[in-house]
Amino acid sequence: MTLPDASCEPTSRRLIFFAAAVIAGAALVAYANTVSAPFIFDDIAAIVENPTIRDLSSLRSVLTPPSADGVTVSGRPLLNLSFALNYAVSGTGVWSYHALNLLIHALAGLTLFGIVRRTVAATRLAAHAFSIALFSSLLWTLHPLQTESVTYVVQRAESLSSLLYLLTLYGFIRATASNSKPWSVASVAACLLAATTKEIAATAPLLVLLYDRMWVSGTFRAALRARAWYYAALALVWPLLAWLVAGTAGRGGTAGLGVGVSSLEYAISQLRAIRGYFGLAAWPFPLVIDHRGTLSFASAAAALPFALVVVALVAATIFALRRAPALGFCGAWFFVVLAPSSSVVPLLDTMFEHRVYLALAGPLALAVAAAHAWLGVRATTVLACAAFACVGLTLNRNADYRSEVALWSANVAHTPANPRAHFLLGNALLAHGQPAAAVPAFQTAVQLKPDYIEAHNNLGNALLAANRVPESLVALEHAIRLHPLAKTHFTAATAFAQLGRIDEAIFHYDAALRLEPAYAEALYNRGNLHAQKNQPQAALADYEAALRIAPGFVDPHLNAVVTLISLRRFGEAAAHGETAVRLRPDYAAAHWKLGDALLELGRLADAADRYREAVRLDPGLVHAHHNLARALAALGRNPEAIAAFERTLQLSPDWAMARHHFARTLEAAGQNARAIAEDEAALRLQPDFPEARAHLAQLRQRAP
Questions:
Q1: What are the extents of the domains in the chain?
Q2: pTM for the complete prediction?
C-alpha cells in the first residue's frame, strides 16, 4: 500500500496556496502583539547572558553552547546557532527573535497541513482531505496553548524541533508516495537536525515507523524490510542525542535521576500533567508559564482517578490502532510525542505548556476529522468559528507577555499556591524598580515554601532596596541559617554597611569570599570598606584581587586611583586611570579620576583635557568642573578657570572649598573684590575654615 500523490488532485495547487495564505496570515494576526514582548525567565541566561551567540564568525563557539545550570541551549547547537543569527541581526533587540519564532511556527503549521492532507487522502474521508488538513493546521497554529512555544522566545527549542520533526514525517510521506531517495535523505537530515534542537527528536523514528505500518507497509516487519537503510539512518538520532545530552551533565541537573524526584514520583505527577494538557487543549484557561506546585497528590487514592483516565486513553489508543488506524494514530501521536517529557524520566519541572506543542496536533486532527464525519460540509462553519475564537484567545494570552510583571501577575492569580510564581513576580517587580511591591510577593513565596532559600535572599534584597534595612537583615540571616550562599552574605554585608556597621559588613564579605573566592564584586566592596576605615593597603589589595578576577571591571580601577593618590603613588594611579579610560571611554568618572592622577603628577594640560572630556560626557559632574578650574588656574589660564569655577558653583553653591579656590583664582586675575566676597561666602558656609579666614585677612589688608 502506498499513499496517493495528493498533488495530483484537481486545482490542488491553487488550494494549497490559498491554505498557505490563510494559515500564515492568521498566524500573523494572532501574534501581531508579540513583536515587542521582552525577554523573560530562561531567555536571560540563554540569550541575553549567553556569550557564545555574540560572534557568528566563531562557528565553533556558537555550536558549543553553555552546558551548566540547565540553560535551555545546553546540548542544542542548532538552537544556539539560531539565536546567534538573531543576535547578528538585532543584538538583544527582541523584534528579530519574535519574527523568526513566528516564521518557524507558521512553517510548522504548513508542514502539518501537508501531512494531514496526504494522509486523509488515503482514508474514507478523502473527499474532505483538504478541509480537514486546513482546519487541523489552522486550529493547531492558532490555538492559545501554543503561545508559550512561540511568544516565549527561548521555547524556540520546542517549535524548531517540532518543525524538523514534522519535516521528518513529511519527507517520509513524499518519499513513499513517489519512491524518491532525495525525500528520504531530506527526512533523515531533518530528524538529525531535530536532535540538535531538542530531545523530543528521540521519538521521531518510532512515529515514522508507526505511520509506515499504519498507512504504507501494513506490518512493522514489512516496513523495516522495505526501508532498512532508511530506519538505520533514522536510528542515528539516538546516539547523537545520547552524546549531546551526556555533555550537559543531566541538562545541568534539571533532568534524570539526580533532580531529587524518583521515576515513580515523576510518573505519578504526569498523570495530572497529561490530564491538564488534555483539559487545556479543550478549554485553554487558565494558561500560565509555570505550573510548579500544582501537580502533587495528597495520597495514592487522590491519584487514582487520574490514573484511570490516562490508562483508559492509552488502552483506547492501542485498541484503535488495530480497529480504526486513523483514530489510533492520532492518539498514539499525542502519547509518543509527549513521552520524553511525560514518562518515567524525571525532569525538575513537571509540567510546561510548551511540551504539548507538537503533541497537540494529534487530538486536534482527530477532532477536526470527527467534525467532518459527523457534520459533513457544515463542519467548515463550526471550525471557522473556532479558528476565529482561537485568534482572540491567543491575542489575549499574548498580552500577558507585554512585561514580566504582567506575565507573573497572571501566573500568581491563577496558581496562588505556586511559590516559584510569587518568587518570580517579586524578581520582576524588583527589576522594575518596585521593591515595596516585591516584598509581599517574596513573603508569600517563603510562607508557601519556608525553606525557599532564594526567596529569603531576595526578600532581603527587596527590603534593603525599600530602605527597611533591619527587616532585611532578619530575612538574610534566616536564609544564611537555611543554607549559606555567597550572594546572601554579600547582601547582608551591603545592609550592614548601610547601617554604618563596617566591621560586621566586612565579616559578611569575608564569608562570601570563603564560599566564592572569585567574587570580584565582593572584593571591590570590601576594598571600599577598608578605604572607609583608612586602611589603604588593604583596600588596594582588594581592588587588585578583584581586577585579577575581572580585568574588565572598571570601578576597582577608579577606586585604586583614589587609594594610590592617598599613598602618593601617582604614577601607578595614572596607570589605573588610563586602563579605566581604555576600558570605558564613554565613562565620565574614568576621565575624572585619570585627571586627578595627572594633576598630582603635575601634568596640568593633560589633566585639563581629561576633566574637559569628563564634563562633556557628564555636565553635572561637579568635582570634575572644580578640578578643571584648578588645573586651568595652575596653568595661568585664569579666564577659563573663572568660567569653570562659576559652573562649579552653579552646580554646588554650598561648597565652601570650591569658593575658597575660586577666591584665589580671582585674586590672581586681579579681581580682589570678588575674591573677598567668595572667601566671605566660604566662611558663612564653613565658619571653621582656617585657610579661607587667613586668605580673607590677607585680601583685606591689601584692599585700598
A1: 6-398
A2: 0.85
